[in-house]
Amino acid sequence: GGAELTATLPFLPDLPIRLVGSPLTATLALVVAAVAAMVLTYAAGYMARDPERPRFFGTMLMFVAAMQLLVLSGDWITLLAAWEMIGFASYLLIGFWHGREGVPGAATRAFLYTRTADLGLYLAAFLLIGIAGTSEISATLSTTGTPALIAGLLLLFAAMGKSAQVPMQDWLMRAMAGPTPVSALLHSATLVAAGAILLIRTAPMLPGGALLAIGIVGGVTAVVTGLMALAATDLKRLLAASTASQYGLMLIAVGAGAPVAALLHLIAHAAIKSALFLGAGVFQHDRESTDLDTLAGAGRARPGIFAGFALAALALAGLPPLAAFYSKDAILAAALASPSAVWLLPLALAGSVLTGAYMGRALKVLWSGAAEKPHNKVPLMAVGMGILVALAATLGLVFTPLEAMLGAHLAEPVWVVPVMGLAVGLAGLALGWLLTPARLLGPLLAQARNGFPLAGGMDALVVRPALALARLCDRLDAWIIRRVVLGGIVAGTQALSRRIERAEAGLLALVNAVGQLNLSLGQISLRTDRDTIDRAIFGLVDRTIALGSRARRLQSGFIHREMALTVAGIALVTGVLLAAPLYF
């Protein structure tokens, strides 16, 4: 089956990360890359006026990278990490327009459905690792017996969630709340394909009991979701239900022991379904709705886009020589040759008839009605869609060499198989074009539009219990915050407040003491200044003034008195001078 390249990176003890480039993983990686490139080209035009374009393209690229990691994973640890990443990225993409009514609920529902089913993958991976003693996927596929049966059923449960198989199909129809490029990518070769890819890669390990369960689940899904698509009143919901139905056909092939047939249909479906979604996005741009009544005649307004949409629709219905004609023939041949043909073949034929019926109905709605001339051009959107339509028409030519590369040759179908495939495809197209859903489905119409809920459906089993548990956890969390966290904070705050109050009281006492000391020093300073310094200064001043007053009396102004004082003074000085020698 060709060369295989392995890259190993150290991680946990005895559990390294492995990337494997085998013919199968390389083919899947090429399909993912090709579809993603065309969808992103289309998205450049579709999201041209959206202010959140950087967030959109960043999340889309993260999603594509995670999907590539998933298909190239060589060990269960890496696969689980990639599985988680695509789940998270799909939640962000489905809820991209989270401000619109109903979008957050759709994203949450998709997350809860797929996360519930993811438990199956975790349990299966841990079981296989424990038995094989290694996380290498190829080594664990040698598991046999009861462990292989249990692991196979657990892997089926995981695939049912991701690939929207009955009874977990409801989330996929609600996921249409995201932008059209998101729907085209998720529904073609990535998120929804992950479940089928998981079963295709692990098919060598699956025992007969697991294969029968896989085939029955796929067959029931092909019919149930086909009826839902036929009853849909919205084009994108019709295509979403169709996605689940087509992956149901792939599970029939896996259950019939022909995983290569499932792979061929996965490749054909990737190009076909992404082209159909991109065409629906163009019509949505023109009419600002995907409601089928609103889209009546939208195909006439854009004959080129309608031609591409019609070619992809005919390919999905299985008309030759388009891609799905070959892959559906391979599925029918596998179902016919299977030991469980009595169950699988009727379900595969019914799913194929319904495929033609809902695509015929979609074509009639788009072509019937008045054509309103569109006001905008969509060159980038047309380029992305056109390349995918070309692939949808021609991919069947590479299936034979692809089988040889994979080293898995399908049995040549007997002449009745292509006849049956063509007959059911044409019959379905005719029924969908000529008859209304009400006439085709009769009393099943209301149930089909409601998603065939049983006992409330998975909402009652998954969503409501999960949301109730979330509300309970929220109340518990609030109680813990209020009683424990906030209570501790309040108690600590109160204790700290008391300490601060005591510190403030001590500081205030110290301030008061310092203030009293300052006041006392001020009083002493005041008394010293007033009673000592001021008194001395003012006393000197008073005595000086008094002395001056007395000295002023000597200044009488009379000459005879001045002369007498002068003579007395001279006499006094003379006397002093004469007496001085007697003492010195």
TrEMBL record:
Bilayer topology annotation: Multi-pass membrane protein
UniProt keyword list: Membrane, Transmembrane, Transmembrane helix
GO cellular component terms, semicolon-separated: endomembrane system; membrane
Superkingdom, taxonomy of origin: Bacteria
Residue stretches spanning the membrane: 20-44, 56-74, 80-98, 119-138, 144-161, 182-203, 209-231, 238-256, 262-283, 304-325, 331-359, 380-402, 414-435, 563-583
Compartments, as annotated in UniProt: Endomembrane system; Membrane
Signal sequence extent: none
Stored Pfam families: Proton_antipo_M, Proton_antipo_N
Gene Ontology BP annotations: ATP synthesis coupled electron transport; electron transport coupled proton transport
Sequence ranges assigned to domain NADH-Ubiquinone oxidoreductase (complex I) chain 5 N-terminal in this UniProt record: 15-57
Gene Ontology terms for molecular function: NADH dehydrogenase (ubiquinone) activity; NADH dehydrogenase activity
Domain NADH:quinone oxidoreductase/Mrp antiporter transmembrane: 73-355
Biological function: NDH-1 shuttles electrons from NADH, via FMN and iron-sulfur (Fe-S) centers, to quinones in the respiratory chain. The immediate electron acceptor for the enzyme in this species is believed to be ubiquinone. Couples the redox reaction to proton translocation (for every two electrons transferred, four hydrogen ions are translocated across the cytoplasmic membrane), and thus conserves the redox energy in a proton gradient.
PANTHER family, A to Z: NADH-UBIQUINONE OXIDOREDUCTASE CHAIN 5
UniProt protein name: NADH dehydrogenase
Organism: Pseudaestuariivita atlantica
Highest classification ranks of the organism: Bacteria, Pseudomonadati, Pseudomonadota, Alphaproteobacteria, Rhodobacterales
